[in-house]
Amino acid sequence: MEIIHLEGTEDTPKIILDKSNGIFEISGRSLPEDSAEFYQPVLDWLSAYAKEPNPSSEFVFKLEYFNTASSKLILDVLSKIEEVDGAKIHWYFHEDDEDMEEAGEEFSELVEVSFEFSTY
């Protein structure tokens, strides 16, 4: 399966989706000009991965900031992860970032995936 490895920029998150090494991470800032276009390859990758996932998959989210358009797409990403057997979300947030903590809690209530919360 092809690896997605996008280096983060000021406006886009770093994304690594690597099945063979079991690395699934989205981190940084997410405010791309066209969120739907930016996240489409991620959604496509997750759809393919859900058909033949690893026995367990831990998806790491270390987002510092995301805009409203990105929040819809992040929910779409989480909904795709919901289709992956044995998946779990590890949601990281800065210790003093209540907004990101609350965003993770709200997302956790919208999808049927195990969430773990940690500060960094």
Explain the overall architecture.
By secondary structure, the protein is an alpha/beta fold. It has one domain: Transcription Regulator spoIIAA (2-Layer Sandwich). It has 3 helices and 6 strands. The chain has helices at 35-51, 68-82, 98-110; strands at residues 4-6, 14-18, 23-30, 57-66, 87-93, 114-119. It has a 6-stranded mixed sheet, covered by helices on one side. β4 (57-66), α2 (68-82) and β5 (87-93) form a beta-alpha-beta unit. α1 packs parallel to α2. The longest helix is centred in the middle third of the chain and has 17 residues, at 35-51. The protein is globular and about 35 Å long.
Looking at the structure, what is the overall shape?
globular
Biggest beta sheet attributes: 6 strands, mixed
Q: Output the CATH topology.
A: Transcription Regulator spoIIAA
Task: Pick out the low-confidence regions.
Answer: none
Provide the residue-averaged pLDDT.
98
